Amino acid sequence: MSIKLIGLDLDGTTLNKREKVDEETKQALEESIRRGIHVVFATGRSYYSLPSDVFAVKGVEYIITSNGAHITRLKDSAVIYSNCIKAGSSDKILDIVVRHKVHVEAFIEGVAYIDRKEYENLKENGSTYRSIDYVIRTRKPVDDIFQHMKNNENKIENINLLFEDSEKRRFIRKLLETVPGITLTTSFANNLEVGGATTNKGVALSYLMELLNLKSHNLMCFGDNQNDITMIELAKIGVAMGNADILVKETANYITEDNNNNGVANAINKLVLK
């Protein structure tokens, strides 16, 4: 097997339910690196929302964040690739979310921003569909999220829209599908994630493979949700986690155990390190 690059989603894939990298998974990744295989995390998270366990995997050189909007080189924290939402498209998105009162977060220069009123409401009243602890740890409140987005309209990596009502989510998705110059994906049942026209994990990985002089037959990718499909389609070995969305499992050519049972380590040990 000529695998030279392993691309991995984080939440629901490399990270277990406690947002940790299990020791067995860490060992498999570090052994891959020792054998000359590049290990790249590719996540929907913004850079400054990454857990410390990600940086504890020795030898990782690059991290793809915001669903492919940025690639960061870890040795000097340089952003070597950027693919953000164009200003005209972000204006149209803002018009829809303001008009229909959608909960919104914006990822800008590696930081995930949230409106202060929304942040305080979540702290006080909780949420039925997302972790408040995660929001408090990873989101930075600003007084007016919409004005903040307008002030940084050329730097928006990702717009995260959140819904308690699945019907409203479907309605907003249909409206957004009419907006040119964007991509739509999702990482869990209650959100929509908006990126630039060609922003996705597969495109970002393609850039990195060209940089490293590698081809798709050198690539193995792991994921669990729809924002992972582009990189799983790109890979010679596309691996769906046991806990993956059905569309991911249908796309993959290998299904491993779930993220709480070392699914990543089991597939790497069986298919690459054997």
Kindly summarize this structure in a few lines:
With 274 residues, this protein is α/β, with parallel strands linked by helices. It is built from eleven helices and 14 strands.
Would you give an account of this structure?
It is built from eleven helices and 14 strands. The protein has 274 residues and is α/β, with parallel strands linked by helices. It has two domains: 151 residues, Rossmann fold (3-Layer(aba) Sandwich), CATH 3.40.50.1000; 110 residues, Hypothetical Protein, Haloacid Dehalogenase-like Hydrolase, Chain: A, domain 2. An eight-stranded mixed β-sheet has the order 5-4-3-2-1-12-13-14. It has a six-stranded mixed β-sheet with strand order 8-7-6-9-11-10. Helix 10 links the parallel strand 13 and strand 14. Helix 1 runs parallel beside helix 11. The protein is globular and about 55 Å long. 42% of the residues are buried. The mean pLDDT is 97.
